[in-house]
Amino acid sequence: NAGVTQTPKFQVLKTGQSMTLQCAQDMNHNSMYWYRQDPGMGLRLIYYSASEGTTDKGEVPNGYNVSRLNKREFSLRLESAAPSQTSVYFCASSEVGAGGYWAEAFFGQGTRLTVV
Amino acid sequence: AQSVAQPEDQVNVAEGNPLTVKCTYSVSGNPYLFWYVQYPNRGLQFLLKYITGDNLVKGSYGFEAEFNKSQTSFHLKKPSALVSDSALYFCAVRDVLYNTDKLIFGTGTRLQVFP
After folding, report:
1. Per-block average pLDDT, block size 10, for chain B (115 residues)?
2. A107 close contact with B: CB closer than 8 A
């Protein structure tokens, strides 16, 4: 059981380049998330998706786009990378568990992105 | 909008002593509250959660947390700290009534346990 898988693990981009971060989960969860982690800022929510075909903005969505390709996959795209987007990016998924209560979120191992 | 505050950037404690990592929250309705731990160069690992019921919640690795509705707090505690507990700890919240899919994290608290 792989859980949440992110690719790539590391990436260096030049300013203005584009790239897509991939995320897939094999737990049949409806909800998926993209966060960025920066020193002193904690984890900030970029976008989330409550179900296949829906996406919503989080706390810091500017400069990013997302696609919920199917129930398993949720990708994050940087159309024109900027140095301010240098960060560690985490994908997560979660689901409503038994009794109708939210279970915990499961996280991928992260993508360390550097924009030069 | 929901939010979480972790007022301490770092907590230092001697091994064997009790530890507390503080968290306060703000939601429109009732909260679902979570604690996660992150070890260096790793993803986040779930420790414990408060959904409903008993205000004292027990979790992994001997950690527990106390939900206090009047103080809107959910502090993480452990009776006897270990050096191996040194890590980055995050509190997170969902708003039960509004937009429960949205999971918001605090800024994190670095716990350093000294031998």
Report:
1. 92 98 92 93 90 91 95 97 96 81 91 96
2. yes
